[in-house]
Write a structure and sequence with these properties.
The complex is a heterodimer of chains A (219) and B (97).
Chain A (H helix, E strand, L loop, with lengths): L2 H16 L4 H7 L2 H7 L2 H14 L4 H8 L1 H7 L2 H17 L47 H7 L35 H7 L13 H8 E2 L4 E2 L1
Antiparallel strand pairs in A: 1-2
Chain B lengths: L2 H16 L5 H7 L2 H7 L2 H14 L4 H7 L2 H7 L2 H14 L6
Helix pairs in contact in B: 1-6, 1-7, 2-5, 2-7
Classes of the chains: A mainly alpha (219), B mainly alpha (97).
Chain lengths: 219, 97
């Protein structure tokens, strides 16, 4: 099995093991028609025998009997990837994946029970129909465009709530008897550095002395 | 983030890297430095910086040696990892063949 099919087999096996893919998911994509057209005769016979022996035919039986490796080896890659993509969409976006449809297999239109030549592999594939309400990826928009419908899409973020400033109060500026009779003396008594008024600069006066603001000329 | 999904995404990324469907650079194209800086815990980010400083260079391969697939799946948004996987799958022709 080549690297691509090994990757697909490992991905599906891991999904089945983790419970993110179920046998039902596999059979939603690997339909009876797909199986009939792509499985080798011996594998088809094995499946029929197992089903007859157990008197049941369930997706679980199909996956268990054939095994993921066999499915990955014989089914079209787009069918296998379609299953993985649909389950990933569901895992990421919950209900979004419900809208994912299985990939159409063009080869299944051939004669019943007889697979057509591999040339059909190059036929244009129907892409999974992914709901546009899928969750947002952190990837760039351009990469989303390249990957097409297999990508989860952005959802709008909830509207931000506007904060209303709480100004329903009054500021009491009347200090009344608490205002010191001699604030400088009190400050000095508390250890503050005494103010020497001659050393202070009245910046307002400095500015108006140098520049006439009304016409921008120096006085 | 569910444990099952995390475990599955870790295995998807690992399988992709093992089978050369994905290259470390492809992962870093989606799990950008900004994404890593915003999502990796300080201890892991510190390991990335330390290993790169020790080697005198930071490469995607070196980053993924420290931040392996389980760590990526645990900390990087799985939507980001899925975008990376989906792009790689398309490039590899898995959506067509």
């Amino acid at each position: 099995m080549d690297a691509k099919r090994t990757f697909l087999a490992r991905s599906i096996a891991a999904g089945l093991e983790c419970g993110t893919i179920t046998p039902d998911d596999v059979l939603t994509h690997a339909t009876a028609e797909v199986l009939a057209n792509h499985l080798p005769k011996d594998q088809s016979a094995k499946l029929l025998a197992a089903s007859l022996a157990s008197k049941t035919m369930t997706p679980a039986l199909v996956v268990e009997t054939l095994g993921v490796a066999t499915l990955a080896e014989h089914l079209p890659m787009k069918v296998l990837w379609g299953c993985i993509a649909a389950c990933a969409q569901r895992a990421l976006g919950g209900a979004a994946a419900v809208a994912v449809k299985p990939v159409a297999d063009t080869r299944a239109k051939g004669a019943a029970g007889k697979a057509e030549p591999a040339k059909d592999d190059k036929a244009p594939a129907a892409k999974p129909n992914v709901s546009k309400s899928s969750p947002a990826p952190a990837a760039s928009a351009s990469s989303n465009a390249r990957a097409g419908a297999a990508y989860p899409r952005a959802t709008s973020s909830p509207p931000l709530k506007r904060r209303v400033p709480q100004t329903d109060f009054e500021v009491d500026t009347d200090v009344g008897e608490h205002w010191p009779a001699n604030p400088v003396a009190e400050a000095e008594a508390l250890g503050a550095i005494p103010v020497v008024e001659d050393s202070m600069t009245d910046w307002h006066q400095e500015q108006t002395r140098d520049v006439d603001i009304s016409n921008g000329r120096k006085r | 983030m569910s444990d099952a999904r995390q475990r599955w995404f870790a295995q998807l990324v690992q399988a992709g890297l093992d089978e050369k469907i994905l290259e470390p650079a492809d992962v870093l194209a989606h799990a950008t430095p900004e994404v890593l800086a915003n999502h990796l815990p300080p201890a892991l980010l510190s390991k990335v910086l330390a290993s790169s400083l020790a080697a005198g260079a930071m490469t995607p391969e070196r980053v993924l040696e420290t931040v392996d697939a389980p760590a990526l799946a645990a900390h990087v948004p799985n939507e980001t990892l899925w975008a990376c996987l989906a792009e790689a799958a398309e490039r590899a022709g898995l959506t067509k063949g």
